[in-house]
Amino acid sequence: MVRELTTDIRDIRLVVLDMAGTTVADGGLVERAFEAAAAELGVEPGSPDHAEKLDYVRATMGESKISVFRHLFGAEELAQRANTAFERAYGDLVDAGLIAPVPGAREAIEELAGSGRTVVLTTGFARVTQDAVLAALGWRDLVPLTLCPADAGGRGRPFPDMVLEAFVRTKAAEDVRQVAVVGDTSYDVLSGVRAGAGLVAGVRTGAHADDAFRAAGATHVLDSVAQLPALLTGAR
């Protein structure tokens, strides 16, 4: 069941948006980069072990990538090797021009900023990959703050740390209930719920679907982040 909204929607002052799958359409690049990481560690393509690990990657979209690899490979050295290979492969795919904004995402961000709200972009990727994505899209100066797990003490989603870091750093809101968190995975939603955000929305442009959003406690489910400005003005 969708969680009850805890604030007047027009009072939202800070909007924390996920990147891949929410504002950025990456066309399955996470899975392609995982293939490279798996190969680096000797996981045989087509094997039951490969299939099991890929299923876990799909199920945990939105979680910090190093946390995913720690679960998959156990030993810290192996997890770090896999994560390095993943980030390198994803960066190469980005450099090859294989990402694009979700339709209407940039316009939504600009409209939110134009209405006096502060927008922060977050990711489960490492900083080097986040910066590569921002550069490829021409988004380096689009928002005043971007965060990756390392910027918030090392814990990514589903922990609330990046949301709370955005709240503390921007000082855009007086109360966490004036924060909106939007993402395409249940991990995005859960991080917003745990942070106490007043509005927590799942979007249907990425990894997870309505049931997962509702189970995680979303207040709203949207077809796309492009619908967010109208929602916050009460037009939807």
Automatic annotation (TrEMBL):
Gene3D superfamilies linked to this entry: HAD superfamily/HAD-like
GO BP terms in the entry: DNA repair
One MF term in the entry's GO annotations: phosphoglycolate phosphatase activity
SUPFAM superfamilies: HAD-like
InterPro entries in the record: HAD-like_hydrolase_sf, HAD-like_sf, HAD_sf
Gene Ontology CC entries for this record: cytosol
Official protein name in the record: Haloacid dehalogenase
Taxonomic placement: Bacteria, Bacillati, Actinomycetota, Actinomycetes, Kitasatosporales
